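Submission sheet (multi-component)
Chains listed below:
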Amino acid sequence: MEKANLIYPSGQVTLREVGLRDGLQMVKDFPSTAGKKAWVEAEYGAGIRHFEVGSFLPKNRYPAFGDIESIITHVAHLPGAHTAALSPNVRGSQLAMVSGVGEVHCVISATEEHNQANLQRSRQQTLDEISEVFALRRQSDLKPLIGVGIAMSFGCSISGKVDPDNVLDLANRLFEMGADIVSVADTVGFAGPKQVAKLSARMRVLAGDKPFGVHLHDTRGMGMANAAAALDEGVRILDASMGGLGGCPFAPNATGNIVMEDLVFLCQCSGFETGVDMEKLIGVRNILASEMPQEILYGALAKAGLPEVAIQPAGVVH
Amino acid sequence: MEKANLIYPSGQVTLREVGLRDGLQMVKDFPSTAGKKAWVEAEYGAGIRHFEVGSFLPKNRYPAFGDIESIITHVAHLPGAHTAALSPNVRGSQLAMVSGVGEVHCVISATEEHNQANLQRSRQQTLDEISEVFALRRQSDLKPLIGVGIAMSFGCSISGKVDPDNVLDLANRLFEMGADIVSVADTVGFAGPKQVAKLSARMRVLAGDKPFGVHLHDTRGMGMANAAAALDEGVRILDASMGGLGGCPFAPNATGNIVMEDLVFLCQCSGFETGVDMEKLIGVRNILASEMPQEILYGALAKAGLPEVAIQPAGVVH
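Outcome: structure written.
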């Protein structure tokens, strides 16, 4: 069996905590190294096993990720935990290859315009760089997985509508290049459940036995509906962040990543075994609140608690 | 054609604003009569046509609904607008019959325990009272529609799990008694999309040509996923409130009704024509914010805006 299929078993749902990467790109103040470790340990203790722990971006410009090697090493000691880190370029991938990270996460955009704006190069240049990442892996001792996320797969904040055929062509090329996992991202929360269902179904056919994922944002409130649609179409790898940490780079005060706690509840009430202890998971929010007091923590389940017999209110309800 | 089928055409989605009833049961301060009128007018201007405008509860104990007759009269002047009002008992229904309201909304619980706690009588007593409401209508000049909501249809905050067979038996009895519309309510937000899909599909078969609806709360974050599941199973009547006004009587600070703005976006991106102008709809929030400054207004779409070409952020996104 391929290593990727061991890390992402096809018979179960894999929920990836991306708050330490996607979430921290948007926060006003970021957690201390000890705080990050406490966060991951607590969420691991609640049952989550996949953590995207940061980006190999220049440390002087992105201090939130300055301790990434230390976090990777720490998480690697937790039995069964899998780490991923975003690498935006060859330099980052060189660092990632020796960091002990379980998965190097590369990014390309579904549209030329967004790729240029986000990565300051053409999509072909990004594909060439991803080829170099595969070459780096061949030379490496640790041979991490290489995953690729296709940003703006459901609509682009620069060029508008995105043809799903183009997304699938790109996903196909990435799998052919050797990507262990390809995920399609609704980077700015443009999608509705019908769109997610359609692209997920086509990705499932394209990917065959290979792992594929969907990365959703709740920017326009469709996060859980989109996640439900993805699950219905066979998607088994979903990204989320504790408290929906992340926001949206295009809309101040907008919600960001889908909320891990609510996603776990969705999976549980849809009949998927997650192995997550919800009470413990909700408790992780305390660490985030303490480390990032300026950030709003989203999520309905944490406020309401699990369904259970409760006290009676006054008045007439319906 | 039955009057109910004119008010609730089967070929289109009907979104019912329940904030002026369900929403106001939970607020700290309620809007002035002028504020309520401004709210309804603005939401009507955005394209919404169905408004549950209050409850015929004792005015001395429930001052939020003290002006209900005035609101009903005001909304009745808006061409094509349909009003509904909750009536918890025969006395309320007597007042409703002469109020000019378009629909008297009765409530019964899926469980004996909740009916007793909510209405201080048995379900059989409530059914007997609903029979009296039909008798009152036969004697009335205005002959409003009579709708019934089945509270706790997806799980009960007192007695736990609810057998869907019992809900369907109750819905069947209500239709046989002459109910123009029956809706099943996830009063405390216990349901997930699979459960909503199953009950919706069975309600669709049971209801046949008669209108039926689903009343959802977002208490545990499943609101939009549940609404999407209901739409997929043929539900065409959904309740919501502007800004998710309402809360949950069982969980302080928890979210309440599903958010109208997000629901409209879900319908639009699922291919349903709503006739709603989203920019105008979002503008209605200003009236709520001004009239109820202590209330949190929920909703992701209003914060993010509709999908459109936007400015570029700094950093690398995925």
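Remark: DSSP finds twelve helices and eight strands in chain B.
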